[in-house]
Write the structure tokens for this entry.
Amino acid sequence: MAQPHAVIIGGGVGGFTAAVALHDRGWAVTVCEPSTSPGAVDTGLGILPNGLRVLRALGVGEAFHAAAAWPPTVELRRADGRVLLRLEQERLTRRYGAAVAVVSRSALLRLLAARLPAGAIHVGVTVTELHVGDIHQRAHVRTTAGDLAADLVVAADGVHSRMRALLFPRHPEPTYAGFTTWRFLTPAPVHAVPAGETWGSGASFGVLPLPDGRAYCYATATAPAGQRSADERAELLRLFGSWHDPIPALVRAVPAQAVVRADAWVADDPLPAYHSGRVALVGDAAHAAPPNLDLGVCLAMEDAVVLAHRASGSAAYLPTALTSYTDDRIQRTSRVVQRVAQFAEMARTASPALVRFRDAGIRAVGAFAAHQVAQRYLDSLVEWEPPRQSALL
């Protein structure tokens, strides 16, 4: 029997995870990434327990553990630095089998790429045309580097996915979530940086230490869609320059060109399916989520291993297998996206009265039942296990 072939559109975390999971199940894989220098400006990722389970299932758990930081506590603060809530990672580990890990995006992509055969990743290659195929015909992918036949096409091309628009041209696009985001990695700070997030009025700022001494920083603020500044670092200083230490110093330490700004989007209207013909959507291409808690990245990793699990039978029956993939994923992802959107709304509350009410409520929770409340919230988000099959585990 000929080896089945999968073409993955998009060289991000979801696309690479899908490539590794399919390769482990005997597929030949071709990753098409349009950028000639993906990850040229690096950022960070917080990986929650559900994402960590995917990495362990793919056999990169130990390597990831060495490449990531594991902060012992995570704090939620006010803009003046007052701690509202503190969570101990050890208690989360006892409940979920893993804690929150912090890694640079480039390091995670390198770990996944190392699991792929030489020549599998093609940068600077854009997909220009796609015929989705069906139960009788393979899919056909036209790219700037030539044409490819595929038993499976994985569309991991992000929130503004061209492939999603092709498959579901009448479906509404993701909706602007009402805020923009900044991400950057700083040089090593002068002193230890506590892990956590600070909430103000209509804005937030997160700091997570990396194992090499740098800090991964991210920020959000309410703003019109598409708005950009000539100097994004200067914009961050305007918004956060008066917040508690070390936030202003961390912003000043980063080169202006190293700040990545992107608007936040959410799939308010879930797709009717995550597949059509021999094409499957993963990650934000299927179910765009605001970046809070980095759950969108973890959902993309979940999608990838479930897709590989469902596609592990005969390629001839793949369209039927993709129906099972949709059935497996659409309810969970829709529920998580909704909860993350609600969390984002709470974090960016701008009304002074609501901010005071929010902060007082969080302080009360932090004083009496921080871990119990956090665990109840996290249970529905991270209590998920990869499909159990010997070929994957």
In short: The mean pLDDT is 92. The CA atoms of residues 339 and 354 lie 19 Å apart.
